[in-house]
Amino acid sequence: MVAARRASYLRLIMQVKSDRTAWLKGGTAQCKVAPKKLAHPHRLVLLGAPGVGKGTQAELLSEGLGACHLSTGDIFRAAKTLDACDRTPNMTSALGYMRRGDLVPDEIVLGLVAERSGCLRCRGGFLLDGFPRTVAQAEALEEALGKQKVALEAVLSYDLPLEQIVARLSGRRTCSVCKSVFHVTTRPPKMSGICDHCGAALYQREDDRPESIRVRMAAYEKSTSPLSEFYRSKGLLVSVSAEGTPEEIFERSLKALDGRAG
Ligand code: AMP
User: Fold this and answer.
1) Of all protein residues, whose CA lies closest to atom 10 belonging to ligand 1?
2) What distance in angstroms lies between residue 5's CA and the mean position of ligand 1's atoms?
3) Which pLDDT tens digits describe the chain residue by residue (262 residues)?
4) How far is the CA of 134 from the centre of ligand 1 (A)?
5) Were both Cys, which of 72, 115, 225, 254 would link to 131 (CB 3.0–4.6 Å)?
6) b/e code 40-52 from CB counts within 10 Å (16+ = b)
7) Which residues participate in catalysis according to the annotation?
8) Residues 167, 68 within the same domain
């Protein structure tokens, strides 16, 4: 029963987006649906603090540009649903760190990405999300791309003033049962405090309280500002304002990329 539920979850996350079997499973796994053959595949890294809407932009860009959305967080979430014998040693170690709420050490993340290096030369291109997170990871990515004889086109960095990030995250409410996400002003439930989908109570995640958000943002700034500098010095960093609706931000992202191509 549990195995059937796990298999259907894995099938679901593989279907909702483009087929990412090779990325999610690693090793010798192959995507069942061949990527579109693109004359100029986009190879991008997405950066952005929690709350800027980077995940939504990754989905829109993946659809709009045909590039595969490659998130390291998704590899770990998919690994959780596999039987222990189907996990590589790198995945098993990574899950231990995640369970403790820690960042996964660079060498393990890099091992997992190395097991998926074919995805980096995929002719459909890629949108890396959640990787790299440190300068050491960015340097290793550069080396891995060099070996695959491909290069990054740009690093899209989504920026939003701290006050707006606090407003977005502190208004978020999550269903205690089905985990659907609402927002008190931008996506309110029909009945205050009650989930539209299953009728259970909504709650505010501990880490979505304003005081926790400020601490998370400070930690994010500390770890990613060297990464932004790394890419700025290579002329790859493209800042995109994350103000407005997802569609407005998406249009802005495309314009920023067009601007570079021209
Ligand atoms: P995310 O979905 O990107 O927020 O990732 C979820 C969790 O996976 C993070 O909190 C980390 O524990 C782990 N993780 C994902 N990507 C990385 C990475 N590049 N380096 C270290 N840990 C990562």
Assistant:
1) 103
2) 24
3) 445 544 544 444 444 456 788 888 887 888 877 777 777 899 999 999 988 989 889 989 998 998 999 999 888 888 888 888 888 888 888 888 877 777 899 999 999 999 899 899 888 899 999 999 999 999 999 999 999 999 999 999 999 998 899 988 899 999 998 888 899 988 899 999 999 999 999 999 887 888 888 888 888 888 888 999 999 999 999 999 999 988 999 999 999 998 776 5
4) 11
5) 72
6) ebbbbbbbbbbbb
7) 54, 133, 172, 205, 216
8) no
Quick one: 175 and 47 in the same domain?
Answer: no
Same domain, 42 and 91: yes
Q: What is the pTM of this model?
A: 0.83
| Same-domain pairing of 91 and 148 | yes
Residue whose token pair is 């939003």: 160
Q: Considering the domain boundaries, does residue 199 fall inside one?
A: yes
For 46, the enclosing helix (H) or strand (E) is strand 43-48
Cα 52 to middle of ligand 1, angstroms:
16
What is the token pair recorded at 87?
């996990």
Reading the block at residue 106, the tokens are: 């660079």
Boundaries of domain holding 75: 2-160+225-261
Ligand 1: does its nearest atom lie under 6 Å from the Cβ of 224? Answer: no
Tokens of 112: 């997992």
**Bridging pattern class, strands 172-175 and 202-203:** antiparallel
Mutate to test the pocket of ligand 1, among 46, 76, 158 (most ligand atoms within 8 A of CB): 76
Which residue in this structure is represented by tokens 């980077």?
54
Query: Would residue 145 count as lying in a domain?
Result: yes
